[in-house]
Structures are given as structure tokens and as C-alpha cells.
Amino acid sequence: MAAPVRLLVATRNAHKLVEIRAILDWPGVALVGADEVPGLPEVEEDALTFEGNALKKARTLRDASGLWTLADDSGLEVDVLGGAPGVFSARYAGEPTDHAANNHKLLAALDGAENRSARFRCVLALAAPDGREWTISGSVEGRIALSPSGTEGFGYDPLFIPDGYDQPFAAMPAQVKNSISHRARALAAAAAAWRDLIND
Q1: Which partner for 127 in 62, 98, 119, 179 could form a disulfide, CB atoms 3.0-4.6 Å apart?
Q2: Would strands 160-162 and 133-144 be described as parallel, antiparallel, or unpaired?
Q3: Torsions phi, psi of 24, nearest 5?
Q4: What is the pLDDT of residues 56-114, one digit of tens each?
Q5: Residue 126 lies in a domain
Q6: Res 200 pLDDT > 70
Q7: Contact 149, 167 (CB under 8 A)
Q8: Residue 121 domain-assigned?
Q9: pLDDT tens digits, residue range 174-199?
């Protein structure tokens, strides 16, 4: 039996890696986190789009490791804020990333706002060792709660209520969130579109 192909997941975020491993199931492919490959560089996410950041991470870590590499960039877009925090979602309240501070700043920015519609967007980039690259995206529509609740997930999960539900991601069991999230939708699309690429 052939050894599984190693697919480097370009993240050091343990929560994100668990989520991706729970959703993505490619036979013959072993998902490896960035912390499991020594000597990988940090990648500054300075592109102005989710796609740009995802491609930059995938390319940089592919070039450093020689492995197939999967990267994502995702964030929250709030309509009344013109799409902010967008690509700055993780750093909305400044560096270093502080989820509680980000949520507090978002609630302050929406104080008194009637329109609280928002979406989570995720763009995945896959970079092959031979230089080929692909991107795919997923999103989930919803709204921002008046106050945080729940203890699951991370980031803006305590505030984001997906359409069709009355509680935020952070108050849902992981398997429910993983079935409807922006990352789940992007990964499902990737699983269908890219399933045979890695094992060619």
C-alpha cells in the first residue's frame, strides 16, 4: 500500500487545523500542520483580498517545503461597515490577535445599527509542487448578535448567527458549525473539485 501523500495545511492555528481535518477527507492524503514541518517561514498576510493572502501563504510554504500546500484566508464582512473587517478580521483591534478585543470593537462599531447583516467568507488556495495553483471559495450569510454567547469555536463565532439559526456559531456543537460554515462550504467545493489532483 502506497504511503499517503502529505498535504501541508498552511496554518499554525490549532482550532482551524482541527476544523479542516474534521471536514476534509481525501483518501490517500495525510494533512500535516505547519507546526509539524520544521523551518517554515512566517507569512505576512498583507494582500488586499482573501484570495491574495491564501495564494501567498500556499506559494510561500509550498516553496519552502516542497509539499502540496493548502492555505486559506477567511474573515467577516459586515455590510453596514462596508465589508469590514474583511481581510483585517484577525487584526481588527490591532496586534497581536485578540479575539475578545475584536468582538468588542465590532460591537462598538455596530452600536445602534439596525442592519446587522454579515457573512463569513473563506478562500482556499492549493499549490502543487510543480507550480500549479487553484483557488476556490465558500461563504455563509448571517447577522451579528447584540452580545456574544457560547464557548465553542474561535474568532467572531460568539457573535455570528448564520441565516436559518437563532444562535451563534459559538453556541453550536462543532459538528453543526462544521456542516454549514464558510470553511466547510469551501472545503466541500475543494473536495469535489480537487479530489483527484493530488493523487495523479
Answers
A1: 62
A2: antiparallel
A3: -90, 120
A4: 999 999 999 999 999 999 999 999 999 999 999 999 999 888 999 999 999 999 999 99
A5: yes
A6: no
A7: yes
A8: yes
A9: 889 888 999 889 998 998 888 778 87
Number of structural domains, the chain?
1
In a domain, 129, yes or no: yes
**Mean pLDDT of the region 131-153:** 96
Q: What is the 3-state secondary structure (H, E, C) of 118-154?
A: EEEEEEEEEECCCCCEEEEEEEEEEEECCCCCCCCCC
For the domain that residue 86 is a member of, what is the CATH number? 3.90.950.10
DSSP code of residue 126? E
pLDDT of residue 1: 58
Cell 501563504 belongs to 57
Inter-axis angle of helices 14-23 and 182-194, to 10 degrees? 50
Q: Look up the domain containing 17 and give its range.
A: 5-194
C-alpha cell at 20: 479542516
Contacts of 114 (CB under 8 A, 6+ apart): none
Phi and psi of 47, rounded to 5°? -75, 165
Given the residues 35, 72, 73, 200, the one annotated as active site: 73
Look up the pTM and report it: 0.89
200 is a catalytic site residue: no
Please give the single-letter amino acid code of residue 43. Answer: V
Within a domain: 199: no
